[in-house]
Fold:
Amino acid sequence: MALAAAAERTRRIRLTSAVSVISSDDPVRVFQDFATLDLLSGGRAEIMAGRGSFIESFPLFGFDLEDYDELFAEKLELLLAARDSTELTWSGQYRAPIDGRGVYPRPLQERLPVWVAVGGSPQSAIRTGRLGLPMALAIIGGEPARFATFAELHRRAAQEVGHPAPALSINSHGFVAETSQAAADTAYPPFATMMDRIGRERGWPPMTRQAFEASREPPGANFVGSPEQVAEKIVLQHGIFGHQRFLIQFSVGTLPHADVMSSIELFGTEVAPLVRRELDSVSENVVAP
Amino acid sequence: MALAAAAERTRRIRLTSAVSVISSDDPVRVFQDFATLDLLSGGRAEIMAGRGSFIESFPLFGFDLEDYDELFAEKLELLLAARDSTELTWSGQYRAPIDGRGVYPRPLQERLPVWVAVGGSPQSAIRTGRLGLPMALAIIGGEPARFATFAELHRRAAQEVGHPAPALSINSHGFVAETSQAAADTAYPPFATMMDRIGRERGWPPMTRQAFEASREPPGANFVGSPEQVAEKIVLQHGIFGHQRFLIQFSVGTLPHADVMSSIELFGTEVAPLVRRELDSVSENVVAP
Structure:
């Protein structure tokens, strides 16, 4: 719903969810919704399918967490089937079979892009590669360098079954301001509030400014800083992952609207050009996002 | 999705679907989607829940048409439960039980309006009245006067269980142009094309211009004509139903965008004022829509 509203307010950006938890949804409906979004937006929709980090939707919609992985594998298969054929015949274990039914509407794009959002599961990276699908690697904590294995598993799995190398995206949290200090001072309070709120449900220790500052360092996961700092970190990670796309979520917790708008503007007018210039100089083979 | 896009383009109109077929959907998700729409639109969302005239969604989503009526009754109950409490505990026959789970987001309106869309079933009218819910009576063929029974059943059922009289809406097809002849000439070709297309699947006889012209007469179901003609028909039906709301769908089949826009404008600037003036003069008790 929010993406459809965004489709009316924007003209060029691509529209994708943080993640569509297809495991606890009906993939046919997810496809129909995004096909509608694609028509509304002139062909800018993408599906980001994932197993979900938040698991509240499983008991709410009557799914068993014990089937976490099988549910996703089966539903991803159904999603791809709905994308690839209008007349659908399908059967599986977790959803009623479909016997030659039409799935409408069809998207404007000939093939609605389906990305798989992966957190930290090697099996997920391998499955995504075997299907030849692009992977979005969510890195929102820990040391990014340790995620290189997943990128490699994805690439190799695709290669082994003869797919051309599928795209890789790194998806992280961040916030851009004119100076590093301003970025941290603005982003930290809502970040800490939200992390502690989630942490109380999940049993995490309270967030500290020290841990936050560490995550802003070059080897950390957060992209909170000045335009130069954020650009350097993207380029640094590109040396590790060789990814084709980088997605940043500009707030964790509630930030004032003007701050988010300013962060978006700095990202587009300063960070992105810096990154493009830097990567053009080190490689001829970078695929533009 | 289309309503969320409309939310961004409009400021005052209320946003409601032709019908949300909750029987073959998950009412919790329908509620969540419309709660999101309500937040996006500043409190203008409404749910129009119905059993559906088109039944293609039942086999596609794994529901049995033999359960057509029970499915709707149970899912309507769950929809109302999700509307009326954030922490939901519920169990039924056709959907996994819910054990004290939170349903989010919550709408902006204190109570998201739920209308029940009824075609031609006395049981539906009675059920809707017993629940004290407003009813939208779809009259798209036949003689409207014959639908008076449903309005009466709805009103009486509400009365019997002590509910205040719930609102009634008449929902019909139509098209407004400067002259009656222009309205008919513009609306007929796409109307016939669409009706014949549906008719081929359902075994209807081909549409004729004669039948179309008959439906435009005062005792017919279609509101195709000049502003005066359409206004007179609404007032005539008000004498039969005493309804509080009238909804018109401005095209059956594909009409040029400019014609639909012109029809909407004539409806707002000429038809509606004519109807208001006429009804103000005959009754003091009309509730504005």
